Amino acid sequence: MVTVLGESRAAFYLGCLEMTLWIFGTSAVMLKVGEEPFLGVCYAVGFACGNVGGIMAEKKLALGNVVVRIISAWHGNDIANAVRDAGFIITTVAGEGSDGPVTVQFVVCKRSDMKHVLAVARDIDPQLFYTFETAGGVSEVRSPSGSRADKLLAPLKRIVPQF
Question: Is the pLDDT higher at 98 or at 146?
Answer without folding.
Answer: 98
